[in-house]
Structure formats: structure tokens, C-alpha cells
Design goal:
Elements (H helix, E strand, L loop, with lengths): L1 E6 L1 H8 L4 E4 L3 H13 L3 E7 H6 L1 H10 L4 E5 L10 H9 L4
Parallel strand pairs: 1-2, 1-3, 3-4
């Protein structure tokens, strides 16, 4: 099982430093293509998507959040965003495993 990240360039770059593949998305078309690409690869068990990118394709993301069991979709705050919890805790809560 692999992780895959979709977000802004900084987020994708940050995850790539720890070996997670990803695609940056700057528009709704980019986000749709990246999301579909991530879903096609059956090795991707967890798709991490920034909240800003997820909002660009909210209907598509919600379809998988509420109807599919695999892969797991985890929304995280975009880089530079303000969030009370750190990224590690958000992912741990979403997948139920301590990283």
C-alpha cells in the first residue's frame, strides 16, 4: 500500500522528501486529472489531498469519501494554512495508525 498526495507545489514537494509520490494541482482541471490518476493506481491505499484542492473538486472527493472504502481519502490543510493540529496528528486520526 502506497500514499499519494495531491496539493499545492510546496505540499507535494514536502511529501516527496519522505518518498511519497504526488501531483500538484493549481486548477480544478488539474485536480480532477490528478485525483483520477491517483484512483487508477490500485497500489495507492491512502490519497492525501489538501483542503484547498479538495474544495476545487468537492463533488468528486465527497463521492469517494462517502461511498468508497478504498482508497482512504485524507484531507489536510494546505501549506501556509492555519490549523490547530499538526499534520502528523491529522493523518494518524484519519488512518487510525500512529506514524
Amino acid at each position: 500500500m502506497k500514499y499519494f498526495v495531491i496539493g499545492d507545489e510546496d505540499t507535494v514537494l514536502g511529501f516527496s522528501l519522505v518518498g511519497v509520490e504526488g501531483i500538484s494541482a493549481m486548477s480544478a482541471d488539474d485536480a480532477t486529472a490528478a485525483f483520477k490518476n491517483a484512483l487508477e493506481n490500485k497500489e495507492n491505499g491512502i490519497i492525501i489531498i489538501t483542503d484547498k484542492v479538495a474544495d476545487m473538486i468537492r463533488d468528486l472527493v465527497d463521492q469517494y469519501l462517502f461511498s468508497e472504502t478504498f482508497p482512504l481519502i485524507v484531507e489536510i490543510p494546505a501549506s501556509g494554512g492555519k490549523y490547530k493540529k499538526d499534520l502528523r496528528n491529522l493523518v494518524n486520526e484519519a488512518i487510525g495508525v500512529s506514524l
